[in-house]
Amino acid sequence: MLSKPLRAMSDEPYVRRPKGATDGIIRRRRIQKDKEEMKLRHSAKSVFNPQGKIPELFVLSGILSNDANWQLESAKYIRELLKSEWSFSLNEIYPGILLFFVEFLNKDDFPQLQVEAAEVLTMVTAGSSEDTKLVIDHGVVPLFVKLFNSPNKDVCEKAVWLLGNIASDSPMSRDIVLNHGVLNHLLELMDKVSEIKILSKATWVLSALCQGTPKPPFEQVKPAYSLLQRLIYLDDEEVLRNAFLSLCYISDDGTIDKIQPLIEAEVFPRIVELLSYPSRAVVAPAVHVIRNLVAVDKRQAQCVIDHGGLLHLLQILSRDYIMKSIKKDACFIISNIAAGTHDQIQAVIDANLIGPLVYLLQAAEFDLKKEAASVIFHVITRGTPEHIRSVVLTGCILPMCDLLGSRDLDMVRMCLLSIDRIFRTGELEKKAMPGGRNIYAQLIFEAGGLEKIGNMEFNDNPEISEEAVKISDTYDHSDEEVD
């Protein structure tokens, strides 16, 4: 679901017009304008400013006049009225007035009027979807694309903003914008402007063009990759945030063709570096992009290690104020690393990540506990006895035994298999030492694990009950005694 943009304020809107309308289109537009003018003149006879200051008849007459300065003052008044009345629907109160603001967009010789008209239309598109559709139906998308080339920076900025409002209204509106070739024009604009203010707005529009359900066709948004790869090297929070959001939306499908351009661009070191950016608004989408990369291409797990990513992930897990969603993505990344080679598991242990993960296993909300449990599960079930010893010494047995009482079958299964592997590893170590004991079995018993596993032999889920029986049998056939 796309989020509706904030209503445009006085210092930010935008506009544009088509390159070559046919004579027939121009003629129909002129006829439509004549009809709308009649409606507007009729509404102007009876509508007055509720505050009683400026008669709205005067304002509407200004909109209809051929005096550009009067049109400008009237447009400013309408804009101020929209700012003060959040539930105000311009077209309902003044039927037909939108067409005149669309016409004002063509006043290339009067950019001040273009700016005011663009801002009014931007405010309208920040309202209801019905208002946005009405603006689209007036043919503003190609007009605003044209205004990208305006020599006036304010006009250009307003044009960018309005198209962002339209694109973020709904997937249907987004596709209308994309089908007008806006993305290529936007990329050209961003390639030649240096003003952070415009770049920030343009990057937001880029993210709006890449998001939504259903997603836009990949081929339509793929050209954005080349620019996004450069934008993440800027040091502006809004630009970085929206650039990473765009990368998230594009790569969320989980297919190699969606992430291959990012891999080939060799931007992994920069993405990892930004995991320690001071703003969570940047860290959240950055860590999600890495999550998408390691989920699709297992080789990217090693890239996280090679570029010092584990240290950044440790900082994320260790800070209480970091959002849960960021920590979940961090755990997902670490879990994919731990599901790899013994060297990769050792890298996780050497980065001191097990301690914070065990803490999450004890104290976090359940969905985050489950992500942490997945990491511990992979270290235990895929690691060496030395790896298992490291995890056990960090105190994982008690929280894993506690989680055997969970109603989540995946969680129970991970804990069962982990406890089974820990127990079997203890048996092997005991046999390798004359007179030795399975100290892991003692820890499992003290944590109440054996009792819970015994009760689970009667679980309704066949997989869980069979695993519980197997573990109980293994313990019963060992010569281990617990105090």
TrEMBL record:
GO terms for cellular component: cytoplasm. ARM repeats lie at residues 139-181. GO terms for molecular function: nuclear import signal receptor activity. One of its GO terms (biological process) is protein import into nucleus. Keywords: Protein transport, Repeat, Transport. It comes from the Eukaryota. SMART domains: ARM (SM00185). InterPro entries: ARM-like, ARM-type_fold, Arm_3, Armadillo, Importin_alpha. It holds the Pfam family Arm. Belongs to the importin alpha family. This is Importin subunit alpha. It comes from Oldenlandia corymbosa var. corymbosa. The lineage of its organism: Eukaryota, Viridiplantae, Streptophyta, Embryophyta, Tracheophyta.
